[in-house]
Amino acid sequence: MTDDETRENILSAAGDLYYRKGYAAVGMDELRSAAGVSLRRLYGEFPSKSDIVKGVLARTHEQWEEGLRSRVDAAGPSAREQLTAVFAYLQDWFGADDFRGCAFINAFGELGGTDPEIAGIVRDHKNSFQQYMADLVAEKGGSELLAAQLSILAEGAQSTAAISGDPIAAEQARSAAEVLIDASLRTA
């Protein structure tokens, strides 16, 4: 197994375990076993658990951005279709059997108060989403206020779906987004 494959196996196993069980609940021995590597190899790739968490969050960030952009790019040509595609993406995610909420919110809740670096990574991820929404809304002729409102709807839907276990939050957020989009773009 190459170093890249080993690293990917570790991050994949860690991402799955942390997402299902929580960051604090997963020990290095359990992770080593799930990744199929020795403890020595695990620590050779990632000197600390914090390094693994950072790697998992970086990988999750890339996957999130790629999935979201693909969904928006595949939407119809209208501003409304592209802006509501964000909520269609959330709906698919919330409906997945393994949905356990936002990995970044989960990390912040477990580790953000004691690890400023993890808190910063979470803030950077959330800021990146807000910037993506701001750029997308501006491209479609919408206001900064609309971008902030859509971002808040998406973030709120993530927390609501995770806590309630019901993917309906995405549909409800999308309905609210449609009202905001229609009103904003009509007056723009």
TrEMBL record:
InterPro entries: Homeodomain-like_sf, HTH_TetR, Tet_transcr_reg_TetR-rel_C_sf
Lineage: Bacteria, Bacillati, Actinomycetota, Actinomycetes, Micrococcales
Protein's recorded name: TetR family transcriptional regulator
UniProt DNA-binding residue ranges: 27-46
PROSITE patterns: HTH_TETR_2
Pfam families: TetR_N
Domain annotation HTH tetR-type: ranges: 4-64
Keyword Lipid metabolism carried by entry: no
Superkingdom of origin organism: Bacteria
Keywords: DNA-binding, Transcription, Transcription regulation
